[in-house]
Design brief:
The chain has 13 helices and 15 strands. It is an alpha/beta fold. The chain folds into three domains: 3-19 and 299-383, tt1808, chain A, CATH 3.90.1570; 49-229, 3-Layer(aba) Sandwich (Rossmann fold), CATH 3.40.50; 234-289, no CATH class. It starts with a helix and ends in a 6-residue tail after the last strand.
Amino acid sequence: MSPRLRITLLLSEPTPMPPRFELLRPDQRGPERRVELAARTLPETLGNHRQAARFYQPDADLVGAVNVALAVGAPLLLTGEPGTGKTQVAHYLERHFDLEEGLFSLFVRSNTMAEDLLYRFEAGAYLHAAIDPAQRGQPVQKSAFVEAGPVWLAYETPGPSVVLIDEIDKAPRDFPNDLLNILDQNEFEVPESNRKVSRGEQPPPIVVITSNSERRLPEPFLRRCIFHHIAFTEELVRRAVEARIGDFPQLPDAVRDAAIERFLELRGREIRKKPATAELLVWLTVLSARGGMRFAEGAPVFAVEVRSENDYGPAAERAMKEKRDDYFACGTLVVWDVDLLSEDVVKVYRASDLENPTIYRRGDIAEAEPAVPRWVMAVDDLFE
């Protein structure tokens, strides 16, 4: 069999995307666009920690750290790259211990104060109300401008509860040590309301603190916490994907495994922002929504797409690019885009450079490196 015939066996027509994924079609407008948009469904676990907690699978080391923190009543400090599931641990504990509505969170910012865990007094709103002529000299109660914080809510919750302090490394320098002073006390005063909030005789809430390690935390703070680092490993990635397998109903096992390998290969590169598990789960969800890429025996290392009369125009170009992206996501090394009606007869796209194809015209000798080493083919042979 000639080399040309071997390539022909790899030809495949572009796979159309299911309508429920391709909602935006610039060349189509009408009332049905609104109907399809309204009917779209979103994966319930993407971006929803409470729903995703159903599928969370802690490893043995993390389980051990949680049990130690529970036994001694100390905060659990979790570090690790974004996407390793640190925040998810608090939601998992809420679900595991059946603490309905028992999770209270503080999402730390650069101006967050430790007192925000207890309550916030809206001084500006109070001042505005106090000088408002509409009050007609009536006294304004400061207690009306007090907002309970996570610790306050946890203290007043019957039974166990969880307090999540997310991304503590974003806080001001003194926040970690101030935080411990607050957590050491099982009660605090609210002068604006003239009341005391107390945990009473109940055990303290479970406190989960996360950090992306963007800056070093104080040693005294570290000594008071039960520390656990969640390493970003291939096992963690595969466990997360397996737990969410129901989110990818149209994705064949071979494609899913190839996408994971591609993801891990990208993480191994020297790039500024490495993709995290969340991006992988989104990617797999999108591949599934588009119907996946189905190859009988895995993705070919070399694929050829020959354009037909319908493969021209902006929409067709987008579809061709998405098909190439799917090939490369599944492990294909080289994709030929063959256009017998163009001067640029063969465009050779490679996994190592997705945006800059090598172009071959009539009279040239085309190749498929590195997918088919040392193999060449005359472009003119495509017209025989």
